Amino acid sequence: MRFTILMACLIGFRVAISAAEWPEGVRRVTVLNYPDCFELSNADTRVTLCHQVGGRVLEYAWQGKNALYLDPQEVKWGTPGGPQTPSSAGRFDIGPEQIVPRREKLWSGLWAAEAIGPRAVRLTSQPDEATGVQLIREFRLDAKTSHLSCEQIIRNVSRETKHWSHWSRTFAVHGGIGVVPLTPETKRFPVGFVMYGPGPEPAIMFRPTDPNVRVRGQFLEVLGPTRYPKLGFDSNAGWFAYVMPHGQAFVKRYASPRDAVYPEVAGLTLCIWYPLASAIPACELEPHGPRNDIAPGASASYVEHWYLLPHRFPAAGEQIDLEKLAAQVERDAR
Q1: What does the alpha-carbon distance between residue 21 and residue 174 come to, in Å, rounded to a whole number?
Q2: Which of 33, 183, 285, 328 stands the most exposed, by the fewest C-beta atoms within 10 Å?
Q3: Is residue 1 scored above 50 in pLDDT?
Q4: What value does the CA radius of gyration of the chain take, rounded to a whole number of Å?
Q5: Domain ranges of the chain
């Protein structure tokens, strides 16, 4: 309860900044200790973008409820003793995870921010020598619904071809239920998912069992924190949902072509990282894009479509009506 109240206070600490005329549904605000953040909004949805540390989404809220975990310590950013490279909330990255070098300019560096239209903002990283790329992220909020288009563009600024892929690393609020549609025709994993073991060089378990992971019909559910938190999936459905305790489903839609090369060690198309709340009170939702072959001067683009849909969280002893959820996604997350 104390954490919930604190988070509500932090999200409420926002100050509008007087400036030139912005496009419709765009303004600049101070959130926590981050000045000049861009805010996108319509009647029911608010999106706050942070360009000071890594080009992130700080807030994705429908009817005042933020779907993202925002570390309370970020209120101390830029102060003596405060976090130097905070990285909670709506994070994006590039992979493959085990191959991509350290990339502080992309992950936690200062980005540029500009409004590009009604409810639309572009964030641009510094060129990064380690990876040879520059990242551009364009966010566009629908005029009426919670639909947020999140496009990441990987621009090759080096003199050689690069092969990086899109990697989403969104921290959603803890305590929800992940729902992944299975695609039997592209099944590679014997039980529908793999589990990464502990340690700096984790073993990948191909027939894991866990009381918080189950298959029902053509869906796999992640009911809560798992024995080891990182789970990988081979679904090519192109969407999944995370039903949150405050009565909303966080839905992501994205391209997942079946004939593409997915360069993670286990060929993952999606990960869910679900630790105990005592470790970090967040659940990480991670679509993985296919490998790109990006020539010098060329770019590759990948788009995630985010939605917040009203959906009742099951009470103790109940379970989600998975077919009803899938029908809701097909109807309202388009």
Answers
A1: 38
A2: 33
A3: no
A4: 19
A5: 2-332
User: Which helix (H) or strand (E) segment is 215 a member of?
Assistant: strand 213-216
Q: Rounded mean pLDDT of 133-138?
A: 98
Which tens digit of pLDDT belongs to each residue from 51-92?
A: 999 999 999 999 999 999 999 889 888 888 777 787 899 999
- Cα–Cα distance for residue pair 268/291, rounded to 1 Å: 11
Contact status, residue 157 vs residue 103, Cβ threshold 8 Å: no
Which CATH architecture group holds 2-332?
A: Distorted Sandwich (2.70)
Residue with tokens 């286990």: 266
Question: Which strand (E) or helix (H) includes residue 150?
Answer: strand 148-156
In the predicted structure, residue 117 carries a pLDDT above the cut 50: yes
With the CA atoms of 284, 287, 291 and 295 taken in that order, what torsion angle do they form, in degrees rounded to the nearest 10?
-80
Residue 20's pLDDT is 60
- Taking residue 35's Cβ as centre, other Cβ atoms within 10 Å add up to 13
Q: What is the pTM assigned to this prediction?
A: 0.93
Tokens of 174: 């803890």
HSE toward the beta carbon, residue 281, CA cutoff 13 A: 14
Q: Among 252, 224, 256, which Cα is nearest to 308's?
A: 252
Q: Provide the 8-state DSSP code for 266.
A: T
